[in-house]
Amino acid sequence: MSCSIRLSTSIASSHSRIFNKIPVHKHGIHVPNYVSIPRPITAHSKVLISENLKITAAGQVKPVPAGEIEVDKVTEAELKENGFRSTRRTKIVCTIGPRTCGFEELEALAVGGMNVARINMCHGTRAWHRAVIQRVKRLNEEKGFAVAVMMDTEGSGIHMGDLNGAESAKAEDGEMWTFTVREFDSPCPERTINVNYDGFAEDVKVGDELLVDGGMVRFVVVEIIGPDVICRCSDPGLLLPRANLTFWRNGSLVQERNAMLPTISSKDWLDIDFAIAEGVDFIAVSFVKSAEVIKHLKSYIAARSPDCQTAVIAKIESVDSLKNLEEIIKASDGAMVARGDLGAQIPLEHVPSVQENIVQLCRQLNKPAIVASQLVESMIEYPIPTRAEVADVSEAVAQQADALMLSGESAMGQYPEKALSVLRSVSLRIERSSREKKRGDSLELPTISFSLPASISEQLCNTAAKMANKLEVDALFVYTQTGQTASLLSRNRPDCPIFAFTPTASIRRRLNLQWGLIPFRLNFTDNMESNLNRTFSLLKARGMIKSGDLIIVVSDVLQSVQAISVP
Ligand SMILES: Nc1ncnc2c1ncn2[C@@H]1O[C@H](COP(=O)(O)OP(=O)(O)OP(=O)(O)O)[C@@H](O)[C@H]1O
Ligand SMILES: CC(=O)C(=O)O
Ligand SMILES: [K+]
Ligand SMILES: [Mg+2]
């Protein structure tokens, strides 16, 4: 195909072209080039369609300096061996813990498909977390990965202490245990557990039910003596360090003064400062109650570090967050369905529909959605998942969530890589069958942009995705400075993968959380013809695309859409 359809705004086609002798990209060959200077978009901009653009020079594949385009070996090999359709669209977040904190273990996870490494500030010291972040950075620098780092705040949820360093403790039926807010200089006495919330002994009443991890172990409060709450175990089980605690009265969750605890505690603020200083990509805020806290944190990040790209993810894990769901998601850069704590606050049978609602709402509002907790929980101990777990993972993939998350499975389980590989293979299988069945096409995507330039981008992306499906193209290419255009394409969940080229390493990592995006770091200019020539030759040289592949190209600089057959 020598002719391509070009769909662009009149502004894009009326760019003034000036001959410019300044080198146009950092690593590129220093040659004179055409640089088009875009005029600001005006209310008169119109969308034009013309059919006259020929990509002529693209046929001449010039050798290019290595390192001009950044992509990891795994993506490269996957594309080379299996082609475009084989790529996984659903992203994977892995919680890093004692089992996976070493460089080699982190590398094994990255090779296995980890897109985001999560650290949970409920556990470990800042020095431990810093070491993990440094190792992930090294992995990215040395191996070309774009693994993003997500820091999850501890929040003000009520939880137990660390069990004197033990991995777990068994609570037997009928046993008496003491939950206390007393501090101990030495290890806690036997069957005594510290609680982090000072008001605990005052808020609970005799007869209340105390649920550990949403009901994995249950106790009944039998006596309160000052700071000590004496309980009888009614549902035996394994207590894990820092497990979450909720208490229930007459079948309802008790929300008294504990509900007044700040979403971001003073310890969380220190952790947030730490995250900003370490250049973490995402901060996931635990137990979000309102949009205000998210807005506050976002302005804090902007003031603290104006160049900082740290995105804020709202964890939906409380009754309060469900009351203000839409406002919270609008204020955030993404949301996590944190089913662990959520399932301890609402009836379990409500969790699946709440998950579906959140995933759909996120997509409508163009925010990435992560489905988290217990996806393959049994793999903490066993090398294969249960059939029910596979069905649960399948459902999240069929809902087209942006990402799935491993918790204990990768943090401290016996089989972190196997758990990851289950998520990977189930995703691939279900994505393929969804494409064949055209599932997920039915969701209506409302217009979300307010300004004209943003609306143009949004409509171009919707059109490009539709064209891509109709023409059955091999891939969508998007050249994006801020990541927004890539994200708008991903929102359409097209049948083909989306190659997202961005000049900024941090944006590349951030895009790695979003459905269907394969982020590359690449410097580009606003001369799309030269960008395409360079990209084609770089990717062809590495065997990632070949002549004849049909590509739809979207650029957020020119606000244009082109269909091109790779020369
Ligand atoms: N840094 C760490 N050090 C030690 N153990 C960890 C660490 N991170 C996680 N773990 C272990 O992995 C288990 C699951 O971890 P994870 O952080 O996913 O818990 P969660 O319940 O999903 O999160 P949250 O506490 O935010 O609700 C924890 O209970 C803990 O035993
Ligand atoms: C991930 C998390 O915080 C939860 O599921 O509760
Ligand atoms: K947390
Ligand atoms: Mg939680």
Automatic annotation (TrEMBL):
* Catalytic activities: pyruvate + ATP = phosphoenolpyruvate + ADP + H(+)
Q: Which residues form the Pyruvate kinase barrel domain?
A: 88-419
Q: What Pfam families is this protein classified in?
A: PK (PF00224), PK_C (PF02887)
EC number(s) of the enzyme?
A: 2.7.1.40
Requisite cofactors: K(+); Mg(2+)
Mind telling me which Gene3D superfamilies this protein's record contains? Phosphoenolpyruvate-binding domains, PK beta-barrel domain-like, Pyruvate kinase, C-terminal domain
Alphabetically, the GO molecular function entries are: ATP binding; kinase activity; magnesium ion binding; potassium ion binding; pyruvate kinase activity
Source organism superkingdom: Eukaryota
Q: Which UniProt keywords apply?
A: ATP-binding, Glycolysis, Kinase, Magnesium, Metal-binding, Nucleotide-binding, Pyruvate, Transferase
Question: Among the entry's GO cellular component annotations, what is one?
Answer: chloroplast stroma
Q: What class of enzyme is it?
A: transferase
Q: Where is the Pyruvate kinase C-terminal domain?
A: 458-557
Pathway assignment reads: Carbohydrate degradation; glycolysis; pyruvate from D-glyceraldehyde 3-phosphate: step 5/5
Q: Which family does it belong to?
A: Belongs to the pyruvate kinase family.
Tell me the PANTHER family matching this sequence. Answer: PYRUVATE KINASE (PTHR11817)
Self-association state and partner proteins as the record states: Oligomer of alpha and beta subunits.
What is the recorded name of this protein?
Pyruvate kinase
* Species per Swiss-Prot/TrEMBL record: Rubroshorea leprosula
